[in-house]
Design brief:
This protein is mainly β. Among the domains are: 209 residues, no CATH class; 149 residues, no CATH class. Helix content is 6%, strand content 61%. The strands form three sheets. The chain has an eight-stranded antiparallel beta barrel with strand order 24-25-28-29-31-30-27-26. It has a six-stranded antiparallel sheet with strand order 1-2-5-6-7-8, with no helix packed on it. The chain starts with a strand and ends with a strand. The relative contact order is 0.05.
């Protein structure tokens, strides 16, 4: 608001009224946060109307200029999957793609398509050439608004659909792929921009493609290639090439980017490549692959969870390159996330893959990272199947990780059985982990097999280690579970064992449980001993006369012993 204007040619002050309104508006929403409209075919959370205006007195009359207005639809959505109805609609293709993925044999993530977002539409006349202009924001951005699909129909898979609206054109985009007989092709941000002024003239349409990946995986041949460009910031290129015929082949995957601008601009790249060729001294050791990697101005994000090591790109590219041919686009995404740009960071890596005595398959990656101090580590996967891979009755897969970090003052060694470890059948799952941590600057250490005592509170820097044991379900009614642990720390020693067995269908259950846990603390000295055993049964009967009722009878007998001290006491 302006009331007075000083005349620069003299000392006089003149009355001059001017008003500028920036985003004055009125909004409508419910106080409890629920949607204004929530129907089968429409959802609307809130509505806001706003006004832009510049009023000047000019030569004594009020003149309006630089005006505009707009409308915001908050929480706006079209429940597309609900609109299909229980029967899925009359179009089976649309029904499959827009309802929850995975049903009917199609692949997907099981999530229905119900996109909800904020939509802003406004116009603005600033007096310049080309005014007024129309602006549209979907989801708070001028770019594409993506609708997640994550569903497949036959050989076609659609990950997401994108819609973008501007003052001159509408843009449609798709992420997805097709897979037929081992051959797959994927596109990333395949888009077409259609100008409003020439909708009927395809020659004026603009087609763009952010990334393309093609792969083939067969019994004796695996081949894949892909290239993805990220417009940034930063601008980045990621690519991969894989060719493997039988036991011979090669793979290379890399990323290049230019980060920042002006004096802060720097180049960043990472590359990892491997060659597959049998070399070595059978049967003692037979190398089947070697690899090298380099990252300049790149971090190397090593998985904390040992279950993620088999799928870590540096390990997977050397260990199971054929799987990358099935989904090369996902491989490029994973590599990009695991080696992000960072000024001054540097890493080197080398890897080997091979077998020992024709029994143990080993893939190992050693790396040196110069980022926050010096870090040296080894990542690997070891597998053994007896008697053979095709007719195994025992399968052991072990994820390995060893690490030295000067910044953390830490040396650690970890190993953990993966989900691919079983005995007799896959229903008998083997579990367990090992960890040794030494914080040499703090004079602290940790050694554990199978984790910790239930009452022990591990420090935040202690790793999570699964119990050493098994889980077995057979005939659908018998469930066996056994687990044990041992741990030695700077302040405590502990051990324990637990056995569980259950039998029966839903209407009859019989169970047995036995356990023992021992914990001894050093400073101050304290000990706890817990031993217990219990057996029980439960019978559930459904009786129907004029009405139905469920009768449940449960009986259990058990004993528990708890000892602690000092002073010595127990229950």
């Amino acid at each position: 608001l302006r009331l007075l204007l000083l005349d620069t040619s003299g000392p006089e002050i003149a009355f001059d009224l001017g008003i500028q309104l920036y985003g004055v508006g009125v909004g409508l929403s419910k106080s409890d946060g629920t949607a204004l409209v929530s129907e089968t075919y429409l959802r609307l959370g809130s509505v806001t109307a706003f006004l832009f205006l510049d009023l000047e007195t000019g030569t004594g009359t009020l003149v309006a200029s630089h005006g505009g207005g707009g409308l915001r639809l908050g929480g706006f959505g079209l429940p597309i999957s609900a609109a299909l109805g229980a029967g899925g609609g009359s179009n089976p293709v649309a029904s499959n793609l827009l309802s929850s993925g995975g049903s009917g044999g199609a692949s997907g993530d099981g999530q229905s398509v119900n996109p909800v977002t904020d939509v802003d539409v406004w116009f603005w006349d600033d007096g310049a050439a080309g005014s007024p202009t129309l602006h549209v924001l979907v989801g708070g951005q001028t770019g594409l608004f993506w609708i997640p699909i994550h569903a497949g129909f036959g050989p076609i898979f659609i990950d997401q659909l994108g819609v973008g609206v501007s003052s001159t054109a509408v843009t449609l985009a798709i992420d997805g792929g097709v897979s037929v007989a081992g051959l797959s092709a994927e596109v990333d941000d395949l888009s077409v921009a259609i100008p409003y002024a020439s909708v009927t003239d395809p020659s004026t349409w603009t087609i763009d493609l952010k990334g393309l990946a093609v792969g083939y995986s067969g019994p004796a041949l695996s081949i894949a290639g892909g290239l993805v460009k990220y417009d940034g910031p930063p601008i980045e290129y990621n690519g991969m090439l894989l060719v493997k015929i039988g036991t011979i082949g090669a793979i290379v995957i890399g990323s290049y980017s230019v980060v920042g601008s002006g004096a802060d601009e720097y180049t960043s790249f990472a590359i990892f490549g491997g060659v597959f060729v049998p070399i070595g001294i059978p049967p003692l050791i037979n190398l089947t692959g070697i690899a090298l990697g380099l990252g300049y101005n790149r971090r190397l994000i090593v998985p904390e969870d040992l279950n993620a090591i088999p799928d870590f790109m540096l390990v997977k590219a050397l260990d199971r390159p054929e799987e990358l041919a099935n989904n090369p686009m996902a491989a490029l995404y994973a590599f990009r996330d695991q080696v992000p740009p960072k000024r001054g960071a540097l890493w080197l890596a080398a890897g080997v893959r091979g077998t020992s005595f024709e029994l143990v398959n080993i893939t190992a990656i050693i790396y040196v990272a110069l980022d926050n101090g010096v870090e040296v580590g080894i990542l690997g996967v070891a597998r053994m199947a007896l008697p053979t891979d095709d007719a195994a009755i025992v399968s052991i897969e072990l994820a390995l990780k060893a690490r030295f970090s000067s910044a953390e003052g830490l040396f650690s060694v970890q190993a953990q059985l993966t989900d691919n470890s079983w005995l007799i059948s896959r229903d008998c799952q083997l579990t367990g982990g090992f960890a040794f941590f030494w914080w040499y600057e703090k004079s602290q250490f940790l050694l554990t097999i199978g984790g910790y005592h239930p009452s022990f509170k591990p420090l935040p820097q202690y790793p999570v280690v699964p119990r050493l044991g098994y889980r077995w379900t057979f005939l659908g009614v018998v469930h066996l579970k056994g687990e044990s642990y041992f741990a030695l720390t700077t302040t405590a020693i502990m051990t324990g064992i637990r056995i569980e067995a259950t039998y029966g269908p839903d209407w009859l259950q019989v169970w047995f449980t036995a356990y023992a846990d021992i914990l001894v603390m050093r400073d101050p000295f304290h000990y706890e001993i817990d031993v217990g055993i219990s057996v029980g049964a439960r019978l559930r009967i459904r009786v129907c006369f004029f009405a139905c009722a469920t009768i449940e009878i449960s009986v259990s007998v058990g004993a528990e012993l708890h000892l602690a001290g000092p002073p010595f006491h127990g229950t």
